[in-house]
Structures are given as C-alpha cells and as structure tokens.
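User: Please work through this fold.
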Amino acid sequence: MFLKWFGLIPLMICILFLFVISISPEVQKVTVKFIAVSIVVSALTLYYGLNLKEMATTMSATITDGRNFFASIYKIWGVFIGVIQQLISYILLLRVISVYIDRKKKKPIQSVRRFVAKTKQFESIMFLSIIVIFLSILSYAFTLKAVHKFLLKQ
C-alpha cells in the first residue's frame, strides 16, 4: 500500500502542474523536468506497489534455504532501488517549490538558495536521463521473475 501512494503522490502533483502549465504564460524548466521524470519513475513504483503480493509469494521467510533466501534478498534490493529512484521525484518536487519560492521572494531565503545550489546536478537532462534509465534497468532486473527463477536454478 505504501509503494502505491509513494508513486501516486508525484503523479497527482504532475497532473496539477500540467493544469497550471496549460494556463500559465511562463513555464520553468525544472517543472517540466519534474513532470517527465516523475511520470516514468512513478509508473515503475506503482508497478512494484501493485505486484508486491505476487513478488512476496516467491520469497523465502527462512534463512535455512540459502538459495531462496538469497533470491528474496535480491528482490528486496530491487524494490529498494525503486524506492530510491522515486526519491528523485521528491527531490525534484522540492526543487520546483524552492525555485518558485526563490523567485517570488524579494529577500532571498538562504536555506532555499543552498538547497537549489546543492541540487544543481538535477538541472542536467543528461544526468537525469542516465540515472533514471540506470536505476530503472537495475531495479527491474532485480525484481524480474525470470531472473529470480534463473538464480534458483543455479
């Protein structure tokens, strides 16, 4: 249930931002980046949230069977990578809000400025693309049923 909401919240915010963008005369680049990344990443998180029961049925609860236990840890690691990937959406959301606050305030707030400066790497489309693709492939490979069966056959 947690994974479903963890992925749904950015999707709902994306819909709100799309509506705001459609009636707004100017659009910030960081908002568009947030929407693009969040839709992709949230779809993967929702996939995990909806298929978690199915993944759990093939997992081992005991340590006695080493292969099943290792395969279970492998799947948990894949879901964990997916959760870390979803945090990118939340960082981008905080960045959107921070940039908006920074532009609207006449007297800058130093903590907001520091956050924007520390998350500067998220301005790069190349960085975002590489990290999202890499984490998506890695997470999906860790949770894929075929990989799980292959590990158990070895």
